[in-house]
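Dear support,

I submitted the protein below through the web form. The confirmation email said the job was done, but the results page showed an empty box. After a refresh the structure appeared. I'm attaching both so you can tell me whether what I see now is the final result or a partial one.
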Amino acid sequence: MKANANATPMFGDRARAMSAQELVMAGAGEVAYIKQVTPEWAAAAFPAVEGLPQTGTLFLVGGADGGSIALTDTYSAAVGHVIAGDMSLVAVH
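What the results page shows now:
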């Protein structure tokens, strides 16, 4: 499919590139993502946390700034953290 050269941009002349910092700040405390992680990854990322499971799958809730919000052992608990924090869950790849 070819792009229409005469099409009006979705945001008109208001569109501009956002810096990485602006993008982070736009979603800070408002959006979160869930990432499936291994117990080995979690142990390396959070060496001070004792009692992490040695097997299975864990779920990390991350924020727009790349910081960790929660680490859980079920996807539903991760979603619960997002809801409890009044954040929107976004898909990232």
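Response: this is the final, complete result; the empty box was a page-load delay. The mean pLDDT is 80.
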